[in-house]
Specification:
heterotrimer, A mainly alpha (565), B mainly alpha (490), C mainly alpha (469), A: 565 residues, mainly alpha, two-stranded antiparallel ribbon, 2 strands, C: mainly alpha, 74% helix, globular
């Protein structure tokens, strides 16, 4: 196999954008969009990984390399971007702003790929912000009210996150004198620096309470964009945290507790808030928060018990891959549902969608169960007290996810068909579902042991199913209809007051010119007799002055006193 | 022959200015030809000069006026930085201005003073002592005035008067400070690490007063709060003037003056020993925040950019005042970076006004569709200003942040973060309106702009990208500033 | 006949000739001015090489002699008169012929040259009297009611001034028994002598139009013809100022009282002149009031310079005189052209829609730079040395005053210059631009000369530094 230069991974989408400048070539280039992810996929799968690249002239001296974790992330990221791009091409075939969307899409893609291979802070940060800012365009694409609101919230969070990341990285770089990203986890980096950098990344990860942008953005963006946002970009936050946090070194209880608290809050809040949403994409977004919180929990555990990091890390990667594929399948499935008429097609689509949903819910036998169990077994050596709530928390996560999945599928099932959505959006979606099936076996992850299935492991899914059936029955019996709240949680409760109408006003008084004409009166002419008086007076004064006793003719000692006679 | 290059570089604009002033307005081709030829020649000469300076050649041009008073042009690394910036941007702005003023009146006057402006900038860059600096500094004040009032409206004249009042007042302070320093120290040549010798020990109070006077003098041009009032008002000038004023000539001359005073007159050690660095840094910090705050509420596009300039130029001052080599790299690099970013923004804004009549933020809706090229350039400039990598602004902010830590001032990080947020808060809405809002109903397509208006912003936007992306390449602004700083701090 | 006496006699001879041959007056006058410039340059070169040149006419030497004493200061003043004279002659020769101008102007030049070169009080008085009378004639030349009235005021004031000077000289002769410049130093030793000095000084203050005895001056300078105004403002008042400077120089420490008075009066004049210039409605009046302010500045410079035997600060005053002469002459010539093109000289009326700014307005703007004293003009160099010296001496309040005066002069001159920069909607598309005239060339040349003089300041400074005999 030809050695793939690593810089090609982020450069391929960028090259495509540059070629977009030629209007004649655009039609041809658009169909190439999914292929922009190909170098990344090849790099992820190459048997001996690509050689590291050192580009001293780039930015502050850039270094690209691909390690095992990076390869795993790059793998699913590449697949997701490629397939989502394909669906985007189909879905937005008649959109007047298609090219704007595609440009943002490619930029974000390049950023996402790039940050996975970047080894130094500057290029990591560059790619990270490229991804974040370009996604703003993805969120805003529909240019409706929801999109504008979501866009505002999104960009505010993104920029604050960027700035925090910048501050953290700058402080870290100064403390160690090393521009390598991994230096952030080294000894001697001030905790504040790590906290700031981690804060920036946690915004991206969607940890509670930094998640407010996430449901809004996911439901506002077009489905393929939501798929990559949720499947790939949230993982960028995780990826960054895995490098930046001092995992596997000394325990850091305070940070672990804080992170765990955020994760727990996410695990509880996500189902609670997600269940009441009326938009399937919103529900899926809340489920993402829950899942990402689960991963944050893994990080927290590793911070508390560094010894278990070698086990937790592959489990987290596994979880990330699973969530990426499953959630992306679900998001891409939304337009698929829209495109399918009610009846057999719709049922087939929904049934297919149930597969990733069940996997996410952790039904034994699916990859989801496998991944969750891997995480569960990896968390050992925890300090006193953690186990007490960890087990219920994990159970709650599974239950919550299962409930959210059922809610999402129900909502999708009752979704109206949108005739504007072309039928060929089904194709990329189906491709992704297929890929998800084989994806886990392909993904380059090592070090997770297989395990047996117990009956109790079915409990969350069964419980969720029961709850759902009960709730449906209750609703049917009592003639209840659910009225979903406005999206945006806390932010959704605020309304901007309309600008007051201008009062009818008198025109302001004319402003006097600030010219330098100070006085416009006539100048008096001096009369001659006044002049002669003045002359005489002056002469007399001079004579008097001359007669005043002067210091001696010699040189005065105080040359400064020139005014004194 | 060490006098030839500085003289030639100066004369390619100082000598050209009277020629252009004397031309009749109707001699359009001749004037454009002379202008462009001179500007291109200057770029070539500056390239030659920078090559020579990088190889250690020294240049000297002296003209004695009286005992202990001489005009002295030289070329060190710092001069080359400023020279390269002004000559390249002069060429681009001239091309732009030719296109912009097509069909306007008083063009000979405009281009004559335009050249004179650049001549004084070049003189400031190459000044070898404080007196020479002062001479060209005042010349710059005068040469810019006709450009500010070029439109001839009463608003323009009001702005011109205020501009003149501020800058001449500053000039007086600078003059007094300079004379005082000459009286105290004899001829004040610019030398790395200062020229004051043991005067700081003998008369610290006088030196402090002189420092305040000098900084107040150059601070007017550098738009340090509270001396910045003229800058937003001067926005009534035509777009190329705003671009030149804001990116190259006036504000940069001020910032450059601060550098010269701190580095080459006082020397960083003296400044620190006199306890002057911290107040200067605090003033710069105040300016950064205040400028950004004021920019938030401006609806006029150029005024918003002007307040942004107020804020951004103080990054340079901050980098100088932090007394740390790392911060100095950031500040110096920002001299160039801010220049190319801000000129991009102004040229693009000029194109909006010229092509579609859009002058306010409110009216920016749909600019991405209406003028994609200009909007793209504007976007690059704006993102660079916020400090988004891999654009130029990121590099300077990175070094400034690290420099703040290096100087033991972690608050600088908070300042940079806050300023970046404010920058984002006033730039991103413009981008949002431009790219994601639909053009207002019933808007008619404006006039098509010629290549003379389209190429310069595109070029500078590319430069913004290149300056950030290739920051570590040799001869990049960053690389050059590292070279300079290695001379100032050893 | 030596160069020194030639330079005095030549213009006087030309005065007689031009009076006798009015048709060829312009040609003769211009030729004489040219020759005068050549002689002045030659003399300057000589002084630069071999120091002060002295000539005793008719072998009358001190204490009673008529000696011509060409020192550095004198030669700078001669050069100043020659340069301004060249430009004014150029303008006058090209402009409308006015009977009587050339003889008067030649007499003025001769008197000035004599004044600068003389080094005895009596000669000085004679030259001074000729100068005063010729100047009155120049004022009246315009022939308007206003100019006649102004000329009469001028005549009266001038006569009183001359009388005071004469009285002082007579008194000094009675005290010291000599009329050469050595007398000044001796005068300071006795009370009567000092009164004599005070009388002379008072007369000079009137003639120099120093505040508060400037009352006659704005009227005279603003109502005369442009060429005459230029001469009056640039040269004639300089004659008196030059004498004040000579008194201060010769008197040494003994004339400290004189200098103190001058400094105070100068400061007053600077502020009062500036204030009136800010209020002035007519362009010429503004320029005339600016002369009051500038004379104030020069007097202030002479006043604060301290004992000339100790410091060279007085050279700053000489530089300021030089710079002011060139710039002010340029300005009056330019104003003449502006008024000619406009048909009036109201400042508010400068914004004429059908008239674009022309070369004269450009010249005015350049001259304004010199008057304000921005670099690189000689005015700036002068102020530089003055302030530098004051810093050494610790006269911080004087510095503040000088800076204030500078700021004010920028303020009142910008009133005009900003109107010279008109354009845009206030000028109609078909507006014409005034064509080039010889007057424009003269004004522009002088203004540029004033601007660039700072760069060549080494020459006058080295002249000023040649030691006195």
């Amino acid at each position: 196999m030809i050695a793939l230069p690593l810089w090609l991974v982020p450069a391929a989408p960028l090259a495509l954008i540059l070629l977009f400048a030629l209007p004649q070539a655009r039609d041809a280039l658009r169909s190439l969009l999914p292929l922009a992810a190909l170098p990344a996929l090849l790099a992820a799968l190459a048997a001996p990984g690509p050689m590291p690249v050192q580009l001293d002239w780039l930015l502050l001296g850039a270094e690209f390399a691909l390690n095992d974790t990076g390869a795993a992330f790059l793998f699913f990221t590449a697949v997701l971007w490629g397939l989502a791009g394909w669906q985007a091409l189909r879905l937005l075939a008649d959109d007047p702003h298609r090219d704007r969307f595609l440009a943002c899409f490619l930029l974000a893609m390049s950023g996402n790929f790039g940050l996975l291979v970047a080894q130094d802070m500057a290029s990591f940060y560059s790619f990270f912000s490229m991804m974040s800012l370009a996604s703003w365009g993805l969120v805003l694409h529909g240019s409706g009210v929801a999109q504008r609101f979501a866009g505002k919230v999104y960009i505010a969070f993104a920029v604050v996150g960027e700035v925090a990341l910048f501050a953290g990285l700058a402080m870290g770089a100064f403390a160690t004198g090393d521009l390598a990203l991994s230096a952030m986890a080294a000894e001697g980096v001030p905790p504040l620096a790590v906290a700031l950098a981690a804060g920036g990344l946690l915004v991206k990860l969607g940890a509670v309470p930094l998640h407010l942008w996430l449901p809004l953005a996911h439901s506002a963006a077009p489905a393929p964009a939501s798929a990559v946002l949720s499947g790939a970009m949230l993982k960028a936050g995780l990826f960054g945290l895995m490098i930046v946090l001092p995992l596997g070194d000394a325990p850091w209880p305070a940070a672990a507790a804080a992170l765990a608290a955020m994760a727990l809050a996410g695990l509880v809040l996500a189902p609670a808030l997600g269940l009441v949403q009326g938009d399937p994409k919103s529900v899926l977004a809340y489920s993402s928060i829950g899942q990402m919180s689960l991963m944050a929990l893994g990080l927290a555990a590793a911070l508390a018990a560094p010894g278990s990091w070698t086990l937790i890390a592959p489990a987290l990667v596994l979880l990330a891959i699973l969530h990426a594929f499953a959630k992306a399948s679900l998001f891409l499935g939304v337009p698929a549902v829209w495109a399918s008429p009610r009846g057999a097609t719709r049922r087939a689509v929904l049934l297919t969608l149930a597969l990733p949903a069940l996997a996410l819910a952790g039904l034994p036998g699916t990859g989801g169960f496998f991944a969750k169990n891997a995480l569960k077994t990896a968390i050992v050596d925890l300090p006193q007290g953690w186990m007490l709530w960890l087990v219920p928390a994990l159970f709650l996560a599974s239950l919550g996810t299962a409930l959210l999945m059922i809610r999402a599928l129900l909502l999708l099932g009752s979704a109206k068909r949108k005739p504007s959505v072309p039928a060929d959006v089904l194709l990329p979606w189906f491709g992704l579902v297929l890929f998800s099936g084989v994806g886990l076996s392909l993904a380059p992850v090592n070090g997770v042991a297989p395990l047996s299935i117990k009956l109790s492991d079915f409990l969350p899914v069964v419980l969720a199913g029961t709850f759902a059936l009960l709730a449906l029955a209750l609703a049917r019996a009592a003639h209840l209809r659910f009225d979903p709240p406005t999206p945006g949680e806390i932010l959704g409760l605020f309304r901007r007051e309309p600008d007051p109408k201008p009062l009818p006003m008198l025109p302001p008084p004319p402003r006097r010119s600030r010219g330098l004409v100070l006085y416009r009166g006539r100048l008096r002419t001096t009369r001659p007799e006044q002049g002669s008086l003045a002359i005489l007076g002056m002469t007399a004064a001079l004579a008097l002055f001359a007669l005043l006793p002067t210091p001696t003719v010699e040189v005065t000692d105080h040359p400064s006193e020139i005014t004194s006679p | 022959m060490s006098f030839f290059l500085p003289l030639a570089i100066l004369m390619t604009s100082l000598g050209v200015a009277p020629v252009i002033l004397m031309m009749p307005d109707s001699a359009r081709r001749l004037r454009t030809g002379v202008n462009l030829a001179a500007a291109s020649l200057k770029v070539a000469l500056v390239a030659w000069l920078s090559y020579e300076v990088a190889h250690g050649t020294s240049f000297d041009l002296r003209h004695s006026i009286a005992q202990g008073l001489e005009l002295h042009l030289q070329a060190d690394a710092l001069s080359v930085l400023f020279l390269a910036l002004s000559s390249i941007l002069w060429l681009l702005t001239t091309i732009y201005a030719v296109g912009y003023l097509e069909g306007g009146t008083d063009r000979s006057r405009f281009f004559g003073f335009f050249s004179l402006c650049v001549a004084s900038t070049v003189g400031i860059a190459m000044a070898g002592n404080l007196f020479t600096f002062l001479v060209f500094f005042e010349l710059l004040t005068l040469a810019t005035w006709p450009l500010v009032v070029h439109r001839g409206t009463s608003e323009a004249h009001r702005a011109g008067r205020i501009y003149l009042a501020y800058t001449l007042g500053g000039g007086l302070a600078l003059t007094l400070g300079t004379i005082w320093l000459y009286a105290l120290a004899g001829e004040v040549a610019f030398e790395p690490r200062g020229v004051l010798g043991d005067i700081p020990e003998t008369s610290p109070l006088a030196l402090t007063a002189i420092f305040v006077l000098l900084i107040a003098g150059v601070g007017v041009k550098a738009a340090l709060v509270p001396l910045h009032g003229w800058l937003p008002l001067s926005m009534v000038a035509p777009a190329p003037v705003s671009a030149l004023l804001h990116a190259v000539a006036v504000v940069k001359a001020g910032a450059f003056g601060i550098m010269r005073i701190v580095y080459d007159v006082y020397g960083v050690e003296t400044v620190q020993a006199l306890g002057l660095a911290a107040p200067l840094a605090a003033l710069a910090a105040l300016t950064i925040l205040w400028g950004s705050f004021r920019a938030l509420t401006q609806d006029d596009l150029k005024k918003r950019l002007a307040y942004s300039t107020v804020s951004q130029v103080s990054y340079i001052t901050l980098g100088v005042a932090l007394i740390s080599p790392v911060a100095a790299i950031g500040g110096l690099a920002h001299l160039v970076h801010q220049g190319i970013m801000k000129i991009t923004l102004f040229l693009a804004a000029g194109n909006f006004a010229e092509g579609e009549g859009v002058k306010t933020v409110r009216a920016m809706d749909g600019m991405g569709k209406r003028m994609p090229g200009a909007m793209l350039a504007f976007t690059v400039g704006a993102l660079g200003m916020i400090g988004i990598p891999p654009l130029a602004g990121f590099v300077s902010k990175w070094y400034l942040g690290a420099g703040g830590l290096d100087a033991g001032q972690p608050m600088v990080i908070a300042l940079l973060a806050g300023s970046s947020l404010l920058n984002a808060a006033y730039f991103l809405p413009i981008l949002y309106r431009g790219w994601f809002c639909a053009p207002p109903e019933g808007v008619t397509p404006g006039r098509r702009l010629g290549w003379m208006l389209a190429i310069p912003p595109a070029t500078t936007a590319t430069l913004v990208l290149a300056a950030g992306l290739l920051a570590s390449a040799p001869f990049s602004p960053l690389g050059w500033t590292r070279f300079i700083v290695s001379l100032e701090y050893l | 006949m030596s160069d020194i006496s030639l330079i005095v006699l030549l213009p006087l001879l030309a005065a007689v000739l031009t009076a006798a041959l009015p048709r060829q007056a312009a040609a003769i006058g211009t030729l004489a001015t040219g020759l005068n410039a050549f002689l002045a340059a030659n003399l300057g070169r000589q002084i630069l090489h071999s120091g002060t040149v002295t000539e005793a006419i008719g072998d009358w030497t001190a204490p009673l002699g008529i000696t011509f004493d060409a020192n550095g200061l004198a030669s700078v003043m001669l050069a100043m008169a020659a340069i301004v004279g060249l430009a004014v002659s150029l303008q006058a020769a090209a402009g409308p012929a006015r009977a009587g101008f050339w003889p008067l102007w030649m007499a003025t030049l001769g008197a000035l040259n004599g004044l600068f070169l003389s080094s005895d009080l009596f000669n000085i008085y004679v030259a001074f009297e000729i100068l005063g009378l010729a100047a009155v004639g120049l004022t009246a030349l315009a022939g308007t009611r206003a100019s006649l009235r102004a000329a009469f005021d001028y005549l009266t004031a001038g006569l009183v001034g001359s009388l005071l000077v004469l009285l002082g000289i007579a008194l000094s002769y009675s005290v010291t028994g000599r009329v050469d410049m050595e007398a000044v130093a001796m005068l300071t030793q006795s009370d009567t002598g000092r009164i004599a000095l005070a009388l002379i000084a008072a007369g000079l203050v009137v003639k120099a139009a120093l505040f508060p005895l400037h009352f006659w001056m704005p009227g005279a300078h603003s109502s005369a013809a442009p060429a005459a105004s230029a001469l009056l403002s640039a040269l004639v008042v300089k004659g008196a100022l030059y004498l004040v400077l000579r008194l201060s120089l010769e008197g040494g420490a003994g004339t400290e009282f004189l200098r103190n008075t001058l400094a105070v009066l100068g400061a007053g004049g600077m502020l009062w002149g500036a204030w009136n210039a800010l209020r002035a409605e007519r362009l010429k009046l503004l320029v005339a009031h600016s002369t009051v302010a500038q004379i104030g500045l020069i007097a202030l410079a002479i006043g604060v310079a301290g004992n000339p035997l100790e410091t060279g600060l007085w050279q700053a005053a000489a530089l300021l005189m030089l710079s002011h002469a060139l710039a002010k002459a340029a300005m009056f010539l330019a104003v003449g052209r502006i008024a000619e093109a406009l048909g009036h000289d109201r400042i508010s009326g400068l914004n004429r829609e059908e008239l674009r700014p022309g070369p004269a307005e450009f010249a005015f703007a350049i001259a304004a730079i010199s008057l304000v004293g921005l670099p690189p003009t000689a005015g700036f160099i002068g102020k530089w040395f003055l302030i530098e010296g004051l810093i050494d001496k610790g006269g911080i309040h004087w510095i503040a005053l000088i800076l204030l005066g500078t700021a004010l002069s920028a303020a009142y001159l910008s009133r005009v210059v900003s109107r010279c920069l008109r354009g845009g909607p206030h000028v109609s598309a078909t507006a014409r631009r005034p064509p080039w005239r010889t007057g424009d060339v003269a004004a522009l040349g002088l203004a540029t000369g004033a601007l660039l003089l700072g760069l060549a300041a080494a020459l006058p400074i080295s002249l000023l530094e040649t030691p006195f005999a």
